Amino acid sequence: MSPSLTEALTDLPTLLRAHALLSGTAVLLAILIGLPLALRAARSRTFRIPLLGAAGLIQTVPTLALLALFYPALLLLGRATSLPVPALGFLPALLALTLYALLPILRNGVAGLHGLDPAILEAADAAGMTGRQRLLQVELPLSAPVLLAGIRTAAIWTIGAATLATTVGQPSLGNLIFSGLQTENWVRVLVGCAASAGLAIAADLLLGLVEAGVARRSPLRIWAAMGMFGIGVLLALISIGGSGSERRTIAVGAKNFSEQYILASAIGQRLGAAGFPVVQRDDLGSAVAYRAVAAGDVDVYVDYTGTLWTNVLGRTDTPRADVMRAELTRRLEARDGVVLLGPLGFENAYVLAMRRSRAEALGVRTIDDLARVAPRLRLASDIEFLTRPEWRALRKAYDLRFGDARAYSPTFMYRAIADGGADVISAFSSDGRIAALDLVTIADPRGALPNYDAVLLLSARAAKDKALIAALRPLLGAIDVGAMRAANLKVDRAEGKKTPAEAATQLLRTLEKR
Amino acid sequence: MANDPFLELHHVAKDLGARPILHAVSLAIPAGSFVALVGPSGSGKTTLLKTINRLIEPDSGSVRLDGTDINVGPKHRLRRRIGYAFQGIGLFPHMNVAENIGVVPRLLGWTEAARAARVAELLDLVALPADFAARRPNTLSGGQTQRVGIARALAARPSLMLMDEPFGTLDPVTRDELGRAYRALHDRLDLTTIMVTHDITEALLLADRIVVLIEGTIRADAAPAELLAYRGDPAVEAMIALPQAQARRLAALVDAR
């Protein structure tokens, strides 16, 4: 078996369990909320129309956005009530998925109950049934097939959508898919997709069994399906109970790119070796990651000084690296209790890069040199570079004007410089492809580009743990840009690809040798 | 109060939005009567019938059953005492024939044995074979469905039966047969029956009293023979002229042979 398959299969049981528990709870909650609402709506037109409208509106919000919105909402709620409301992980994922699962349950519930033959309802009333008796003996049994079909749809949607829970730090099968996509590890993506599809099919079959049991009045089928559900839930719960440990689990955060996965994995391996139970929260949005560490939902992650400077402190100036870091250390701790432990030793900044041969031929070493020849050159940038303050700063400082400037997705941007379709690209300084394609980064003597030192951030609680700090300290100043580029390349290259965990292990091994 | 009629409607009025359906209708019905409520579509006869088992609440007026105002006590108690059969029938599709017939007895808490005995008795009463008990409603013909509907209405031994076009969808032969069968049950079980129908011939042949309702008011109230001799209100005359004219034409056809 290939190492990436082995790794994906090792990660699978935990993620599958988390995924099943999350989507199962969301559907259950949606049923508990949805059925009474559907009942109310079936009886009252004034209630039905706004309710179905609202549910439909929620459905039009992309699931990803719905998940993202719950993060700040819960954060605010936690602040307003001063209760420890977890803003990251299970709770926001559960709430978003529950809302998402509501529509099919409501819509089918209303259709099932509202669509009953009025003659049957009149007969039930005339027989002297109370409202409750009519509901339990006539309306629910008769609308059960339609109600169940709605629950089935909700279950399938929810299991699919739950892969997105990864983005708010709740482990799910999405972890395999997102990290696989980012590192172009297709085996991992396929394992994630197959597991998610398999889970959806299993849930569909079980609910189908219940539906058939209800339709044919066969209690055997209903009990068989219920029994299987019970066994599933029990299995999921038992394994979770078993993994409990006396030491607090440390949550290591990672944003959504290879370097972050590798560093989070390296941090996790060091903490694991020091005896800490570790959970990795991958694919956090850039803004989410910082807020998560401030709120204590994530204990440790790697961020970059320039990002923190502009996005967290809202600053637009570009001071020297050491000044910026000192100011960040002071302000982040004072404001959010977040501790900046120190720099890792490399920078992941926006730089301009050229092929070595081309740069030498044109005599370009600094951006000053580049500015003289730029009108004859073509720039290929990533999607956002041309709209970022870095680009504005560069143009202002060097009066830089290219003959042509186009935005590409990163993969195609590198392809463009490799095949001569572009002369200059906007690269990230720690990107492995800089070494792999024999590119040179062009010096910025006027300091127009801000500094992006990789730094370790700790939550207030993690910063109090001496053993944790001792386990992480050896990483500080230990990873130079060459080591990071090499590690990134192992994960990003098309052939002989390594998983982030393997790259992290190798990275740690080179550190020990030094 | 021994002098009270069994069922008494007093100034019962109902509007639907701005449109009046019933204008202060009053009616006294002694126990054992078979009353046909006739009138054209939209005359308010179904509405009037439904005020008796509170499927419709009148805007004003009162209904007394057996000397007590029907608004005393909860609706469902009242309804369990009154048999109700209607054109839609509304057999419960998820229950078999026996469960359908036994629905009111079950609500009243009868034992399973008592219910089973009653179901057998009722199937016999409405002339259906005993093995129909296990059949599903969707396997029955129109006439069979209607018989089950009547059996269900009779299950808890009500003394009052409300029937709304109960034979409306049946073919003429089944309709006549079932009508006469029901009339026999009415006499045998000592029932009080109020039957809504727009078929004046059916009313004349089955009932012992006919109440003509037109535009929400009672225009005539008489025994069948008296009604045939009625002179006065032109709308009522037109209604009873039709079956008489048909009878004469049929008689002429017979004579011509």
UniProtKB/TrEMBL annotation, chain A:
CDD domains: TM_PBP2. GO terms for biological process: glycine betaine transport. Keywords: Membrane, Transmembrane, Transmembrane helix, Transport. It comes from the Bacteria. One of its GO terms (molecular function) is transmembrane transporter activity. It comes from Allosphingosinicella deserti. GO terms for cellular component: ATP-binding cassette (ABC) transporter complex. The chain crosses the membrane at residues 20-39, 51-71, 83-103, 142-166, 186-210, 222-242. It is a multi-pass membrane protein. PROSITE patterns: ABC_TM1. This is ABC transporter permease. InterPro entries: ABC_Gly_betaine_transp_sub-bd (IPR007210), ABC_transp_perm/SBD (IPR051204), MetI-like (IPR000515), MetI-like_sf (IPR035906). It is found in: Cell membrane. Residues 16-211 form the ABC transmembrane type-1 domain. In the N-terminal section; belongs to the binding-protein-dependent transport system permease family. Belongs to the binding-protein-dependent transport system permease family.
TrEMBL record, chain B:
One of its GO terms (biological process) is quaternary ammonium group transport. Pfam families: ABC_tran. SUPFAM superfamilies: P-loop containing nucleoside triphosphate hydrolases. Signal peptide: none annotated. Residues 7-240 form the ABC transporter domain. It comes from the Bacteria. Keywords: ATP-binding, Nucleotide-binding, Transport. SMART domains: AAA. This is ABC transporter ATP-binding protein.
